[in-house]
Amino acid sequence: MDLGLADRAIVVTGGSSGVGLATVRALLDEGARVATCGRDAERLKNVAATLGAGHGRLLTEVCDVRDADAVDAFVRRTAEEFGAVDGLVNNAGQSRMKALDEATAEDWRDELELKFAGVLNPLHAARPHLAASDAASVVNVNAVLAKQPETRLITTSAARAGILNLSKSLSAELAADGIRVNSVCLGLVDTGQWTRRYAAADSGLSYEGWQAELAADRGIALGRLGRAEEVAYAIVALLSPRASYITGTSIDVCGGVGRSIL
Ligand SMILES: NC(=O)c1ccc[n+]([C@@H]2O[C@H](COP(=O)([O-])OP(=O)(O)OC[C@H]3O[C@@H](n4cnc5c(N)ncnc54)[C@H](OP(=O)(O)O)[C@@H]3O)[C@@H](O)[C@H]2O)c1
What we know:
By secondary structure, this protein is an alpha/beta fold. Helix content is about 45%, strand content about 15%. It has a single domain (about 10-190, about 225-250), classed as Rossmann fold. It is built from eight helices and nine strands. The strands form two sheets. Strands 3-2-1-4-5-6-9 form a seven-stranded parallel beta sheet, sandwiched between helices.
């Protein structure tokens, strides 16, 4: 099936690793033009060298999504180079492993800032360009934590719920401009977040053994962590003009760890 993404211009935040990187790769495979950002210049340079060489369809820029001016400049450059912005994937970020008694006021402030600025800054910057597109789609990368909070991740769970709520409002608000807004809610996906936690845990287990224990502990029905490309598949489907009647919804990509039936 042709997803109709060839030559579409898509902004993916946080495309130097994990889900963002898999999404950039999948979009390039579909013939889209992709702009991505992250904070670490070296990692972005590697992505550009690996995926971008030669075809002029990948733009990378150092940009922290919490910095509205930097995000404006990144999106402006994307629109100048590609002549359009048809899609936006708000993916950049990470979770914060803090329980109630560990989370400081700064943790709460930082977590809420990252999650909300990570959606609102790129959206504000891209909105006029999205409104000019005939197939505008925004995908917010969220977590099942939004619907199923975990006390060990109390700040992230609360922020995630807020973002799911915000996504619904945005879908209603932006429909008049023809901009669809949806979410993907991740369970546990094998990316940099988990390799860092494996290293920090120093468990003495192999990475595979540690993952299997984690999957059992968290009750993942499919018995394993997800792969970044399995999430990218759902994101690309929501970006496709073929998903033209899908807005205001969320898709769980979580191997069955989600218990919510809504
Ligand atoms: N993996 C999971 O199990 C899981 C579960 C639920 C939700 N999620 C969410 O899914 C998204 C992707 O996660 P991932 O697992 O793919 O993580 P990852 O492998 O750590 O990649 C995160 C990406 O975001 C970038 N990034 C982080 N903070 C940024 C900022 N302030 N400004 C710009 N770029 C930033 C990182 O680059 P730099 O570090 O160079 O900036 C990197 O490119 C995140 O929002 C995460 O919270 C992941």
